[in-house]
């Protein structure tokens, strides 16, 4: 069984978000991490590998510095890593990204593709399902549990108030939630192997034959960003001084007003 | 000469730091307070390969270099010195001598289980009457048919009661030199927990590293197989000394970690703590103290990393190990003492980590060779 996990290197938003003067993310000044949903997807793939001996390939489109993230994935247990990088692919929106990633996936043997639900920098949740669309595969999003049964997968698809149990025949694509699991740590020996024994395969535009130039990079991106901003700082709020019973009544009334309860 | 770490080592450091912050730090105060061995953490470290970092893969280890192992002990000790010494004693004092002196059969039998964390290791040389003067040891081993029979006791043994495999140094013969002076000949043995006649004495109540299991080991007609001897008969003393050379690098890393951890906390605290209307970090006294400590911590790190590289590339590294341990241990004591002073009254309160760090630092000047022993090793090489 071959599993391809699509992962993305994202700025760590835990320490706040910084922007360039033109409104785009200042990625250089922020620490880069593996997107949390993608990491959960990788862990899910590695658990299938532990149970069945599946081969796990990680794939990313990004800057050359994403090499570190791919080595991290191999240090966790991924067998192979592919970096799709080329200047002409830069500035891609979800459409151009999914077109490019799908063209890269087409070059691989796969039974199952796992992506994160969404990246913490763009928050679109579009790339996973779009890759499936390009490849003509069924997609199961918001996976909170994945089980392999023969040539099928059974996935618990999580909603806010309910879940679906969905069974699909492979090949198919699953998008993972970070709640899916607790990703494992790398091992020290895994890190040494990732640098000393393994290679990151690098593909440029020329390696992706099944891809139309109209669908790549900034020029092939229909999305236009008007403005980007960080979370708006909250106001001072409201302070009330009441005794405990009155405070509870006051709070309950506010909750009702805002339809929280 | 290049003082920068490559990406591989940077990633390993990131892993150890992440693990220490997430898994170890939240338990450090409780481990100290309750004096309970952190078994949950040790199990996790076994699962993620931390218990066999410098061990070749063919014996179940991670196949990394001594530097990576040293960084692991360093990062763990930044948040919990107890956890640091558990890994250090297990790796340097138990696995390392079996790898260096063991037969292929012994390596297969013990190292795999130790390196994967399935079993825990310990080392027993010190006796009530034989600390720095290790030659004064009294524990004896006599061959009786197909078995060695051990009698005596060992004290202050790290991982004492929780270990499964013990390296025990015992006298196997006494010979006379030309002048008629008696000389004890020691041998090293691998003793498994549960061997008949092997029991535990009292648990030591310590000033620091209080979660570490420190026990007395008692051997009363303890019978172990003939092939449990490690290395050649009569070579136990050089085996013990060489093992301690490696162990000292581990303890130096522990001391380095304690010093770094204390300094990190001092930097954060002095920026927050306000007196006379401004942060105490804005006072020149604080700035000068922090500057001195930072310089010493970095010097200690360079010595420790140099010793780790020496272990990788040299057959003998006693002097490098002694210098690293001497300087790192005394730096840990100085840094923690001065950091407690910077914290003032809060530094004396158990709620703040630095009080524990100061107590933990002291042992690094004592075990695996006191600072005085390190000075003897260094000056001995200097003046020979």
Automatic annotation (TrEMBL), chain A:
Q: Which PANTHER family match?
A: ELECTRON TRANSFER FLAVOPROTEIN BETA-SUBUNIT, PROTEIN FIXA
- Read off the lineage from the record: Bacteria, Bacillati, Bacillota, Clostridia, Lachnospirales
Q: Which InterPro entries match?
A: ETF_a/b_N, ETF_b, ETF_beta_N, Rossmann-like_a/b/a_fold
Q: Which GO terms describe its molecular function?
A: electron transfer activity
- Name one matching Pfam family: ETF
* The protein, known as: Electron transfer flavoprotein small subunit
Q: Which residues form the Electron transfer flavoprotein alpha/beta-subunit N-terminal domain?
A: 22-212
Q: Which SUPFAM superfamilies match?
A: Adenine nucleotide alpha hydrolases-like (SSF52402)
Organism, scientific name:
Agathobacter ruminis
TrEMBL record, chain B:
Pfam families, sorted: Acyl-CoA_dh_1, Acyl-CoA_dh_M, Acyl-CoA_dh_N
Entry-linked SUPFAM superfamilies: Acyl-CoA dehydrogenase C-terminal domain-like, Acyl-CoA dehydrogenase NM domain-like
Q: Which CDD domains match?
A: SCAD_SBCAD (cd01158)
Q: Which domain of life is it from?
A: Bacteria
Provide the Acyl-CoA oxidase/dehydrogenase middle domain boundaries: 122-222
Keyword annotations for this protein? FAD, Flavoprotein, Oxidoreductase
Provide a Gene Ontology MF annotation, just one.
flavin adenine dinucleotide binding
Q: Which family does it belong to?
A: Belongs to the acyl-CoA dehydrogenase family.
Q: What is this protein called?
A: Acyl-CoA dehydrogenase
- Species of origin reads Agathobacter ruminis
User: Organism classification, top ranks?
Assistant: Bacteria, Bacillati, Bacillota, Clostridia, Lachnospirales
């Amino acid at each position: 069984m071959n599993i391809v996990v699509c992962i993305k290197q994202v700025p760590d938003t835990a320490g706040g978000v910084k922007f360039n003067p033109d409104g785009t993310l200042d990625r250089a000044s922020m620490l880069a991490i593996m997107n949390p949903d993608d990491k959960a997807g990788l862990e899910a793939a590695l658990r299938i590998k532990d149970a069945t001996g599946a081969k796990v390939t990680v794939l990313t489109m990004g800057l050359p510095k994403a090499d570190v993230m791919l080595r991290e994935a191999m240090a966790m247990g991924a067998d192979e890593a592919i970096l799709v990088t080329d200047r002409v692919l830069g500035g891609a929106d979800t459409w151009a990204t999914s077109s490019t990633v799908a063209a890269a996936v087409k070059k691989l043997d796969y039974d199952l593709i796992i992506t994160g639900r969404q990246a913490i920098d763009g928050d679109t949740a579009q790339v996973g399902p779009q890759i499936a669309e390009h490849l003509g595969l069924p997609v199961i999003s918001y996976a909170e549990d994945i089980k392999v049964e023969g040539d099928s997968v059974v996935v618990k698809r999580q909603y806010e108030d309910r879940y679906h149990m969905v069974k699909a025949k492979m090949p198919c694509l699953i998008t993972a939630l970070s709640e899916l699991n607790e990703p494992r740590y790398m091992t020290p020996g895994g890190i040494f192997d990732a640098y000393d024994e393994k290679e990151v395969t690098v593909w440029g535009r020329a390696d992706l034959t099944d891809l139309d130039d109209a669908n790549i990079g900034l020029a092939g991106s229909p999305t236009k960003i008007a403005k980007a901003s960080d979370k708006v700082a909250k106001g001072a709020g409201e302070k009330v001084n009441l005794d405990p019973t009155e405070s509870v009544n006051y709070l309950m009334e506010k909750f009702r007003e805002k339809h929280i309860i | 000469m290049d003082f920068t770490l490559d990406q591989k080592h940077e990633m390993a450091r990131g892993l150890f730091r992440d693990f220490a912050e997430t898994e170890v730090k939240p338990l450090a105060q409780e481990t100290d307070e309750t004096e309970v061995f952190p078994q949950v953490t040790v199990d996790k470290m076994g699962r993620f390969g931390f218990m066999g970092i410098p061990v070749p893969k063919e014996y179940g280890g991670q196949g990394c270099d001594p530097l990576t192992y040293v960084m692991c002990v360093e990062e763990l000790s930044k948040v919990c010195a107890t956890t640091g010494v558990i890994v250090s004693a297990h790796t340097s004092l138990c696995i390392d001598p079996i790898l260096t002196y063991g037969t292929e059969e012994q390596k297969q039998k013990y190292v795999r289980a130790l390196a994967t964390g399935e079993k825990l290791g310990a080392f027993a040389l010190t006796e009530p009457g034989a600390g720095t003067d290790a030659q004064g040891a009294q524990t004896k081993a006599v061959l009786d048919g197909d078995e060695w029979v051990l009698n005596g006791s060992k004290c202050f043994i790290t991982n004492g009661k929780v270990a499964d495999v013990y390296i025990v140094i015992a006298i196997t013969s006494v010979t006379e030199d030309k002048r008629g002076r008696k000389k004890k000949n020691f041998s090293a043995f691998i003793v498994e927990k549960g061997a008949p006649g092997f029991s535990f004495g009292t648990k030591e109540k310590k000033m620091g590293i209080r979660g570490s299991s420190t026990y007395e080991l008692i051997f009363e007609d303890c019978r172990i197989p003939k092939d449990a001897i490690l290395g050649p008969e009569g070579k136990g003393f050089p085996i013990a000394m060489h093992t301690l050379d490696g162990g000292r690098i581990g303890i130096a890393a522990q001391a380095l970690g304690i010093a770094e951890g204390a300094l990190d906390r001092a930097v954060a605290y002095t920026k927050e703590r306000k007196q006379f209307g401004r942060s105490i970090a804005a006072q020149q006294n604080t700035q000068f103290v922090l500057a001195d400590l930072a310089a010493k911590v970095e010097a200690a790190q360079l010595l420790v990393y140099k010793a780790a590289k020496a272990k990788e590339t040299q057959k003998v590294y006693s002097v490098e190990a002694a210098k690293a341990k001497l300087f790192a241990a005394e730096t840990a004591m100085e840094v923690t003492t001065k950091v407690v002073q910077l914290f003032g009254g809060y530094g004396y309160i158990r709620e703040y980590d630095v009080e524990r760090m100061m107590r933990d630092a002291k042992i690094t000047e004592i075990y695996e060779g006191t600072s005085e022993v390190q000075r003897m090793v260094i000056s001995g090489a200097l003046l020979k």
